[in-house]
Amino acid sequence: MHASKGDRLVQHGRVVGQHDQVTEVVEVIGEEGEPPYRVRFEDGHEAIMSPGPDCQVRHHEDEAS
After folding, report:
1. Which of 7, 17, 19, 24 gives the lowest tally of CB atoms within 10 Å of its CB?
2. Using H for helix, E for strand and C for coil, what is the string for the chain?
3. How crowded is the C-beta side of 18, counted as CA atoms within 13 Å?
4. Which residues pair with 40 in a beta bridge?
5. How sure is the predictor about 62, in pLDDT bands with cuts at 50, 70 and 90?
6. How far apart are CA 32 and CA 42, in angstroms?
7. Which branch of life, at top level (predicted)?
C-alpha cells in the first residue's frame, strides 16, 4: 500500500450496518509511501495507522479530477 499526504484512507465496515470510516493522511511515517501513516479522522482527532486489507487508498490526484 502506498499513500501520500492528502490521500484518503477508506476502511470498509466489517459487519452489516457498519459504515465505512474515512481518514485523511496528514503524514507518511514509513519509507516511500509505506505505512504507518498519521491520519486525521472526520471528527478532528489524529492517530497513527497501519491499514489492513479492509482499507483502500483514494489518491488526492484522483479525487481532484
Report:
1. 17
2. CCCCCCCEEEECCCCCCCCCEEEEEEEECCHHHCCCEEEEECCCCEEEECCCCCEEEECHHHHHC
3. 10
4. 24, 46
5. low
6. 26
7. Bacteria
In which band, very low, low, confident or very high, does the pLDDT at 30 lie, cut at 50, 70 and 90? very high
Cα-based distances in Å from 21 to 4, 9, 26, 47: 18, 8, 16, 13
- Single-letter amino acid code for the residue at 8: R
Q: Is the pLDDT of residue 36 over 90?
A: yes
Model pLDDT, residue 28: 97
| Residue whose C-alpha cell reads 502506498 in the numeric block | 2
User: Which amino acid would we find at residue 58?
Assistant: R
